[in-house]
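Intended use. Records like the one below are meant for learning the mapping from a protein sequence to its folded structure. Do not use them to infer anything beyond what is encoded.
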Amino acid sequence: MRQTKFGVRWVLVGLALTVALPSFAGIRGPTRRPEALAIDGHDYGVAWEISSPTLCSRSGYLAYDGSGKSPKVTFQREKGPGTEWLFVELAHFTDEKPMGQRGGYYISEEQTGYTMKIRAAEGRFKGWYLARVDGSLVLVKNHRDAATLRMLETRVEIKSR
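Structure written out for the chain above:
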């Protein structure tokens, strides 16, 4: 059967979307191991493994109460009820931060990564957002109260004269 230019074009568009959409989502797919993770500006350290639908650190999986009794967010050792999240408002960032002078060069650091909000994916709190309230992680209903997660993926030192 002979393919027309129009048919081939649609096949190529379909293939491009199949490849591009998962990478555009930024998180889904292979596990990401960011250099750092901050939640509403508070550093939650290194050694995170982030792969939709979970976030895991040395302390365990970021988890909410799957039974729906408490909006408190903690860490638990095993993946299970309350460890699945929806990543929303995902946005890529690139920031450049001046670091001073060294050896006759101006030094700056370029940082790249993603910002996002996360929502509980199951249970009574399904759809509620992660937030920081009085220094603790909790789930909140209102989008305006949601915490912003900043996942730093790369840091590159830049020298200029």
